[in-house]
């Protein structure tokens, strides 16, 4: 039995197999429509989510399975003081696989240590978000045709952005990937990401404040929102929240084949006027998220389709 806590839990070869399976599901969804009949997915979400929770639920239903779970800590026995360890022991009696989101870093890992079913980390605090990373990799590979030889701009909240941290970890294993880290000083990538990933693996990267100056050199721009829920005081959040706004004027600086991704939800860091630009693929990214999670569920449940 395997769990997914980090994108590094899979080798590059295993990730490629998942991405290939997701691509096959996209081309022939009917072939996989009954593969999880009789199986149940538990979605245990201790903090709010729209895309990730519904994406998991859609994925399982598309595979012919069923879904149980809760959408907030307040609607679970956590409100009565039940531990994550006890919750997953109980969930293991009801479901075949579990997707867990939790505001505390490491909570899904604790659950995996006490679980008798596969546990998927659906986001833990500002730490990791591996299924979003698999979604991102699938989006990039499907639309760019490769995961190597890319210059990738990561813009916005790079300090608390778990999607950014997971993506850096994952892409650091591919050849000739260069990172441009675009953020205000207060929201720079944490030191441990710089030291343990970028510098330890001799990745080429640079840190800049102005988005405009690096737009022409990017193959991919990954925008993120400034996350109000990660700030300790309102004043700092208000000061940071509108630091970057991607609009048509900035898009004119980019190459014609640069892609814009965003893990969503957006607040106002991408102007709605950009939505009609064919390079804006963040809503396609959402659809790829369903295929990616379908492939992941099949992989962790060890279900093979001829």
Strand order of the largest sheet: 7-6-5-8-9
Total strand segments: 9
Query: What share of residues are in beta strands?
Result: 15-25%
Low-confidence stretches: none
The percent of residues in helical segments reads: 25-40%
User: Biggest sheet, open or closed, and with what strands and sense?
Assistant: 5 strands, parallel
End-to-end distance: 22 Å
Envelope shape: globular
Number of helices: 10
Q: Residue-averaged pLDDT, rounded?
A: 92
The H/E string reads HEHEHEHEHEHEHEEHHEH
The helix-and-strand class reads alpha/beta
Task: Sum up the structure in keywords.
alpha/beta, 9 strands, 306 residues, five-stranded parallel sheet, 35% helix, four-stranded parallel sheet
Overall description:
Strand 1, helix 2 (51-62) and strand 2 (66-70) form a beta-alpha-beta unit. The two termini are 22 Å apart. The chain has a five-stranded parallel beta sheet, covered by helices on one side. 42% of the residues are buried. Helix 1 (12-27) crosses helix 10 (282-300) and helix 3 (84-91) packs across helix 4. By secondary structure, it is an alpha/beta fold. Helices cover 35% and strands 15% of the residues.
Short summary of the structure?
The chain has 306 residues and is of the alpha/beta class. Helices cover 35% and strands 15% of the residues.
Give the helices and strands, then pairings.
Blueprint (H helix, E strand, L loop, with lengths): L11 H16 L12 E6 L5 H12 L3 E5 L13 H8 L5 E6 L4 H7 L5 E6 L5 H15 L5 E6 L6 H10 L5 E6 L8 H9 L4 E5 L11 E4 L10 H7 L7 H4 L7 E3 L20 H19 L6
Parallel strand pairs: 1-2, 1-3, 3-4, 5-6, 5-8, 6-7, 8-9
